[in-house]
Amino acid sequence: MLLPGCFEEPSMTSYIIRKVLIAIPVLIAVVTLVFLGIRLTPGDPVRHMLPPDASEADVTQMRKHLGLDQPLLQQYFLYWKRMLHGDLGNSLRTRRPVWGELASRIPYTAELALVAIILSALMGVPIGVYSAIRQNTLFDGVMRVAAFIGVSFPSFWLGMMFILLFALKLGWLPASGRAGPIWTLVGFRSILLPALTLAIGSAGSISRMTRSSMLEVIRQDYITVAKAKGLRESRVYWKHSLKNGLIPVITLLGIQFGFLLGGAVISETIFAWPGLGQLAVKAIMFRDYALIQGVVFFFAISIVLVNLLIDLTYVFIDPRVTTS
Amino acid sequence: MTSRHFIRKFLQNPLAAIGLVLIIGLMAMALLAPWIAPFDPYTQSLRSRLQPTTSAHLLGTDYYGRDVLSRLIYGARYSLSVGLISVLIGSVIGTTFGVLAGYFGSLVDRVLVAMLDILMAFPGMLLALTIVGLLGPGLFNVMIAVGVWSVPIFARVIRSNTLVARDFQFVESARAIGCTHARIIFKHILPESLSSLLVLGTLRMSTAILTAAGLSFLGLGAQPPMPEWGAILSESRVVLRQAPWISVYTGCLITLTVVSFNLVGDALRDLLDPRMT
């Protein structure tokens, strides 16, 4: 029989390398799908870029200019070559480099997503823990119904109702726009409503996950031992249980990040927040393919990176994962 | 479980019964729209713009003087059919992928599962947005986008059902007496997945309606003056201060629809397929 510790444990480095290697094919697949999607969907993208009265000669010239007259495989390699050099092309509408358009908006979406994820964790985790400790009480029941409704709520409507209540009726917060950096009072006030709109749905999922995960943990032997030793109940729950109960919640935070990016598109449109989501909607409306390609690529990279980060966070919370 | 026993058990759950009644009501509203809507949803009347509730206009009028109640009633046609068609797209393609992967296994399975994993890696709304981005704005493209998003979800469940059903004795017997693959799949394997399909289809309806309304709200789905719920909500944004009732009523209706499908879907899951989450 092998004694514990006799296995040759894979090191943390090999775990990290393995995770990075898994992320690469996903990125390649996303880039390839977007490349093929744009070129193989019905309708000539060049026709959409030019005014309706453009001549056939203009169309041919534009196609040549964009390299769309070359064989597909050649276009594909050229596309990768450019992308690896950091060249995402120029926006078809504004003629400015796509990378520049993205870079100017990334900070705004990042701050919105960050505030939203903090708000959703601040709402979801304590509610989930408290619901688990007080399982089957009135509080638990009310919170479970609230989480159910929260998931069914259209976020775009919620945003409008927030504007109606907090901006138009009560006049507490601005209705739209980004008034300044987040550390200034006006800036902080202007981010609250868009971030809250984003956070409500995630908070529902986080509280449900925290509740079920905590329910599993607080029934384990070491919690009983901790209680038997006479530790204060709050210390047992909020320190000993929460650390293990949070592992699945962290995965969920990663998944929620993707949802937040999707939700940001809606929240940014309602609140005229100058981020990537608003840029994406405009790009789609104007069929600005270069920009659509850039935005999708950026979203894909950030989701892959966040998932990677989440995987690595496990190592610190629960070092056993490297051996699994 | 006999069908009568099933219906009785289902209706014993009060929330499920409420959900079912609401869904039947919404469907009736959509089907009977021309007869029950008090006005034509497109007829403008600039004289009666932005009126609150009156005896003639129970839910008031919008910016162009159109009757909000009539627009919401007609909107049920668009919103429910968008949900239904996109769930059909997702379930047909997803089931095909799932059955092929589960039944044939080996290389087919590995390739299909890898493709589905990549689709799953993308969060739903972003995937739908990307597909609309590629195909261009419009209600039909929204249906395709929401349908494609559902494909991996259906495929995964049907694949695992097929993996189990493949080893049943009656399937092995069918194979032994020389039944064709198509006959085995349609006659013996797929019927085993019907309950999962029903549960998943109902739950996906709510997501599909919500996402399609969201895309129309962004201006990427139904285009004005079409009375689709998301589009009505989008139009009401401009007059939120003067006529908040339009967005309040429309949002309540969307939420009610989504909650109804979720209630029925959850109850069906508890009854038919408790393992599925």
Secondary structure topology:
The complex is a heterodimer of chains A (324) and B (277).
Chain A: H1 12-40, H2 45-49, H3 56-65, H4 72-84, H5 98-133, H6 138-152, H7 155-169, H8 185-217, H9 221-228, H10 233-270, H11 276-285, H12 289-317
Helix pairs in contact in A: 1-12, 5-6, 5-8, 5-10, 5-12, 6-8, 7-8, 7-10, 8-10, 10-11, 10-12, 11-12
Chain B: H1 3-12, H2 14-31, H3 33-36, H4 68-104, H5 106-121, H6 124-135, H7 139-166, H8 169-176, H9 181-189, H10 194-217, H11 229-236, H12 244-272
Helix pairs in contact in B: 2-4, 2-12, 4-5, 4-7, 4-10, 5-7, 6-7, 7-10, 8-9, 10-11, 10-12, 11-12
Core attributes:
heterodimer, A: 324 residues, mainly alpha, globular, disordered N terminus, B: 277 residues, 12 helices, 73% helix, elongated
| Range of helix content of chain B | over 70%
Q: Kindly report the oligomeric state of this protein.
A: heterodimer
What's the helix count of chain B? 12
Q: What order do the helices and strands of chain A follow? A: HHHHHHHHHHHH
Shape of chain B: elongated
Proportion of strand residues of chain B: under 5%
Q: Based on helices, strands and strand pairing, what is the structural class of chain A?
A: mainly alpha
Order of helices and strands of chain B: HHHHHHHHHHHH
Give the largest interface. A-B, 47 and 41 residues
Q: Main sheet of chain A, how many strands, which sense, barrel? A: none
Number of DSSP E strands of chain B: 0
In short:
Chain A is mostly helical. Helix content of chain A is 74%, strand content 0%.
What does this protein structure show overall?
- The complex is a heterodimer of chains A (324) and B (277).
- Chain A is 74% helix and 0% strand.
- The model of chain A is unreliable at 1-8 (pLDDT under 50).
- In chain A, α1 (12-40) runs antiparallel to α12 and α5 runs parallel beside α12 (289-317).
- Chain A is mainly α.
- Chain A has helices at 12-40, 45-49, 56-65, 72-84, 98-133, 138-152, 155-169, 185-217, 221-228, 233-270, 276-285, 289-317.
- Chain B is mainly alpha-helical.
- Chain B has helices at 3-12, 14-31, 33-36, 68-104, 106-121, 124-135, 139-166, 169-176, 181-189, 194-217, 229-236, 244-272.
- In chain B, α4 runs parallel beside α7, α6 crosses α7 (139-166) and α7 packs antiparallel against α10.
- Chain B is elongated.
- The two termini of chain B are 21 Å apart.
- The model of chain B has no long low-confidence stretch (mean pLDDT 88).
- At the A-B interface, α1, α6, α7, α10 and α11 of A face α5, α6, α10, α11 and α12 of B.
